[in-house]
Amino acid sequence: MIREFLKNRAENLLSAHFGLQNFAASIVNIFFGVYLYQIGIPLWEIFLIWGITFFTRCLLRPVVLPLYFRYGVRRMLIIGIICNAISFLALERVTEVGIWLGIFMLLVAITDIFYWTAFHLYFALLGENMRRGKQVAIRNCMEFLSSFLAPLVSAILIVKINFSAIFWVGAGFLFLSGIPLFFVPDVELPEPQKFFPAVKIIEKSGFWLFFMDAIFSQAHGFTWTLVLFIFVGKYLTFGGLLSLAVLFQMIAALFLGQRFDRGNGKKLVPLGVILLTLTVFGRVFMTASIPAIIFFDVLFILGFLLLYPFYLATFYNAVKSSRHPLYFQVVAESGWDMGSVIITGFASVFLYLGGDLKYIMLFGIFGLFGVAFVLKRYFLQHSEKTSDLIL
Questions:
Q1: Could you say which DSSP state residue 142 is in?
Q2: How many CB atoms lie within 10 A of CB 290?
């Protein structure tokens, strides 16, 4: 069984890189909103800052895109890692809304264009459609392991040293994450085309999938970290609860990866949507104690593992099968940008007018059902054979 998951050496190296990168990024990103809140930036401004970052990313994307054809996917991925590390060090200097915050936001926008576009392209093009579920499962295992360790490490560093420690440790692990990339072959891209004519003819299902996912992820995920910290009020407790939420995900992810390759997504995705919906309602209305928080963490884990491995495997196969993978990826990520801008902008206004932070999570349900709708179109229009996975 283990051999089935480890056949593709390049994909495994890329997953190893992602585990280190996710650990480094999570050390900082888990406390990003908390850090801004702790230095006195109002909640409505935090959401506005986050939304402006995604808007900037969307504007810069057509400018940066030609660099992929000039320098290649692997170099862009490495440049993204370097920019990300520098952004952490810039965040350390942020003490108010000012020049350093502006520099950090610009660096994050550039980092995401370099890193995430390149990473998703790499993962899609190096993998095989018939084994996509297993390959996503390996990647998810690396992500879950690092996500389990990162909150505890962050909390301990903050308590024992200070906030600056997480920025330097995160930057250090980012550089380490680049080592496996030197053993991964680069991937070839089709010939470049003019940006706007190219994106007009690209299938837009990837855009809508990412657009809806951004609404759910920002409204629920980003908001939940702030709600949880404000509720518990202690770094170690906060970090421990976040770590506990991913403790049992790795084994389940491997199991569900195989289920996807056997064509069982049609049955499991709706159940995942139901469990995630119940999680959102529970976190809004019924998390007044630590046991309740843990219960809905478990519910979230189950829902996440029933939905997102199929979401990712479907998407990566769609990228590989598209007429131009780079432009397909760019269109999809533009959907994430737009969804993030809309929901963070709405949240900022909602909070400025006196709304309760936790109720923002309810609006994420619209995004969750949007994701389900796009995936449903895939299941209706294509057979369950993995070789036919095209959005």
A1: H
A2: 14
Per-residue pLDDT, averaged over 216-234, amounts to 84
Q: For residue 123, what pLDDT is reported? A: 74
- Split at pLDDT 50, 70, 90, the class of 263 is low
Owner of token pair 């449903």: 376
Q: Report pLDDT for 276.
A: 93
SS3 content of the chain, % helix, strand, coil (to 5): 85, 0, 15
Phi-psi region of 97 (alpha: psi -120 to 50; beta: other; left: phi over 0): beta
Under DSSP, the state recorded for 191 is: P
What is the pLDDT, as a whole number, of residue 26? 80
| 22-36: pLDDT as tens digits | 888 888 877 788 888
Q: Residue 233 in 3-state DSSP?
A: coil
- Token pair recorded at residue 78: 């490495």
Contact 218, 29 (CB under 8 A): no
pLDDT value of residue 243: 57
- Domain 11-184+194-388 in CATH: superfamily? MFS general substrate transporter like domains (1.20.1250.20)
Q: How far apart are CA 355 and CA 347, in angstroms?
A: 9
